[in-house]
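Weekly sync notes, structure subgroup
Attendees: PM, AL, DS (notes)

Item 1: joint prediction request from the bench team. They want all four components modeled as one assembly rather than separately. Inputs as received:
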Amino acid sequence: MSPGLPTQMGERDDSANRCSPMRTDVRPMETREPLGRVARLHYQHGMTHQEIGELLGFSRVKVTRMLAEARRAGIVEIHIHGEATPFGELEAELTGAFGLAGAWIAPSFSDPERSLASVGMAGAECLTALAPTVRTVAVGLSSSVAAIVAHLRPQEQLPELGFVPLAGSWGGASRGMSPHELVIGFGAAFGARTYHLPAPILAKTADAATAFAADPGVRQTLRLAAGAELLIAGVGAVEAGSGMLADTLTERERGQLTKRGAVGDISARFFDSVGSAVESTVDERVVGMSLRALARIPRRVAVGFGDQKITALRAALRTGLMNHLVTDVDTARTLLRTTRKGN
Amino acid sequence: MSPGLPTQMGERDDSANRCSPMRTDVRPMETREPLGRVARLHYQHGMTHQEIGELLGFSRVKVTRMLAEARRAGIVEIHIHGEATPFGELEAELTGAFGLAGAWIAPSFSDPERSLASVGMAGAECLTALAPTVRTVAVGLSSSVAAIVAHLRPQEQLPELGFVPLAGSWGGASRGMSPHELVIGFGAAFGARTYHLPAPILAKTADAATAFAADPGVRQTLRLAAGAELLIAGVGAVEAGSGMLADTLTERERGQLTKRGAVGDISARFFDSVGSAVESTVDERVVGMSLRALARIPRRVAVGFGDQKITALRAALRTGLMNHLVTDVDTARTLLRTTRKGN
DNA sequence: CTCTCCACTGAACATATGTGCACTACATCG
DNA sequence: CGATGTAGTGCACATATGTTCAGTGGAGAG
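Output from the run, pasted for the record:
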């Protein structure tokens, strides 16, 4: 905390403002101040919502909402000292069993929304831990990675850091799920640079993909991504219903992929159970980094959870295609169980 | 947060240990680790006590208690960004009306215990803000100052800082209220040096007091205190029942003091309504810093609250004897109200 | 000027958290 | 060996918090 006296009203701590670009609703300081007051009365002085309401002339419910808003906006930050992690042993087992350089495990919930949020939280921890050690982060598009953005708290600013998408974007409405939004969200949280890949992730034809890839802007971004020291991407399954890409494929394409041994994908690049790229009519239409290039990035974080993704995750980890993992505890246990027993 | 991977089990973050000397019960890391896990599951992942209990095999109540312990031990730290203070306008009014350099106001409660804790909290904020700007802090003994110790969280370590008592100590059992305990508590929180004054605060006779004051250890400590850049002390009233010192005086002594215009004391030095020292049979028995020496310390923080202390506080502030204030909102309002209207 | 929309409110309900108390298990002392 | 203390437990209750929903008023469009 700044050592300024509390009554020096002219001189405000602008740390909240500094971080606010990442928030969707930037409000004037005026609006935020009562939140800080309420937060102090509750968290420091231990007053109940009721008491604060009576003191300041709000209803209890309003105080509850102000406190929720204060947490959401990052005015209230809860820090847990020490690095005891809830599933430490399991993380150690996983890193041992798969030769990983790191694993972050979140609790599982029956509500998939909640599990997603929880994994997003773990992913945010992972990114917070690794980002300060690198200059460029390549970002793959997936709902799990998108969930990370919402859980990044204002933190250490890294103006030298850059976030680069691994591949192009889907057309149409994106619902918070375009690579642009991901990269911008990450960038804002770290005060970092962002880059964009001006092309679709899946072109209409192989020729179109080739043409797109020849575009100077696209080439430049892809070159930058290839030089990244950290990759964070979702791992997708081939089955329908397991993710954006899988749902886009026709039955025929899916059939071709399966026949050729594909078990999963990273940023639209399908791989088989030994971690090799699977060539296909899909693959040649992708505008994005190749599996080979991707595997040259030193730190590669796989994010994913759920039974559907087990096979894909196991292959990505066992073959060394990915060397870090962010997942939930159910998935982690299943991975360990089904992998130890032969397979 | 340290960028270490969560699975690097060998390399622990010892920040918790570094701060633990100030805690009364230092436990092995082993014991603390489950607290960190539970804390993360609750505060980061938003699991309820019930859910955490089911997951880890504790009862719900036990989880509640573990979380309370984690907060108490400083494993969980709640930080509020921005320096909006709950009673900012009132603080500004006070600093204006009394020409103070700073004011910290805590909420009031009908339960005096709670008020004391709350003022302690505000005092901790004050000390945390001011301590890093000085080398030596002179500490007066009072229950309000003692309450600060309990609210100092592990924080910035200032090994060059020193805490020095203003006066000697009471004989007999101290119940956490000796200058030694205060100074040690402050010192531990800041990782600072502590000094002691080997003498009673109130000697049996004036001669005895002179003898004590001549002791090299006593002189050395008092000289150190006189050179402090920051003073933090309670302000006491003359009436019986308003504090340790007042309760110790005989009716006769109290009468003498009142007749000579005493309205309050700082560390056993009584002053009148214009801020001058009141000579008395009590005063000459005190082993401690004189009012004159005390007033030469540039930053002088008065801590105190309650109707009984209004007169004493008003005098100490109006006369410039003290130039910072830590109090509760009721006292602050009364001070403003009764001071504006003439008086 | 009236209608519609929308953001905001608090009452009532649902859930989560905190605490006094009686009980247990184990250690210490006579 | 029993008596006595002490720390830890969870139940049941008391309190605090969070959420849903049906109003409410004010801004902007028609």
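Discussion: The first helix of chain B runs from residue 15 to 19.
Action: AL to compare against the crosslinking data before next sync.
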